[in-house]
Amino acid sequence: MRSPIKLAFSDKYDQQHAREYLLKHQEGMARRLSHLRDEQLARRALALAGDPGLVLDLPCGAGRFWPLLAEKANRVIIGADNSAAMIETACAAQPPEIVERVRPLQTSAFAIDLPDNAVDSIFCMRLLHHIGDSAHRKQILSEFQRVSRDSVILSLWVDGNFKAWRRHKLEDRRRAKAKPDSYQNRFVLPAATVEEEFVSAGFRIQDRLDFLPFYAMWRVYVLRKG
After folding, report:
1. Domain total for the chain?
2. Which of 71, 110, 128, 222 is in Cβ range 3.0-4.6 Å of 156 for a Cys bridge?
């Protein structure tokens, strides 16, 4: 198994940050509406992937999607994250009847501690927009190709919409003021580039689901092996 890559933000998810992350998506009407739209897209993506029975939720964060994943009564969920604090927070925060359906696993997306073809589907929400290096994305996709038997559901930021245009303008201003060693950990990626990476990793693109077409950056992809 490959050695996991360690990114600059990998160690920030301690107990305090994990708790803040849990609360973030519960604060304010806009956050709650955004979460409902995330759930709507995730539910549709799971249906398009054939309602897989064994799902690896990586990174699971604070377990935000565990109740949704548990809606399928016989689904087995592996809740995995690089951060032990995130997994601990998720297990403490989510309803006990949901948590008992989840198998916790501390592991990195760069080197998943599971055998080949271990799960039906990998559910990867809100990770790849943090990965700006193409080589790093390719390693994650290679691991997804190895561990999933059938499908991958993932989200990221793509270009070609109003929010991406605004984000590029903001990043241009930040780069003009930034120190040479400043670190960026969120990236708008060209859709053509990531789609080529998906195909190179051995996936075919089944569906593209946009959060708000032509406006929002978030896009969910349903990928199938072969």
Report:
1. 1
2. 128
Q: Measure the CA–CA gap between 90 and 79, rounded to whole angstroms.
A: 9
Task: Tell me which DSSP letter residue 58 carries.
Answer: S
Contacts of the segment 112-115: beta carbons below 8 A, 24+ positions apart: 112/56, 112/58, 112/80, 112/143, 112/146, 112/147, 113/1, 114/56, 114/78, 114/147, 115/147
For residue range 89-145, what is the model confidence (pLDDT) as tens digits? 999 999 999 999 999 999 999 999 999 999 999 999 989 999 999 999 999 999 999
On whether residue 76 sits in a domain, the answer given is yes
Query: Quick check: is 21 in a domain?
Result: yes
Q: Indicate whether 2 belongs to any domain.
A: no
Query: Which residues form the domain of 107?
Result: 12-225
Amino acid at 79: G
Q: Considering just the CA atoms, what is the radius of gyration of the chain in Å?
A: 17
Unique residue bearing structure tokens 């940050």? 17
CATH of the domain at 206: 3.40.50.150
CA dist., res. 84 & res. 15, Å (int): 9
7: in domain? no
Residue whose structure tokens are 């038997």: 149
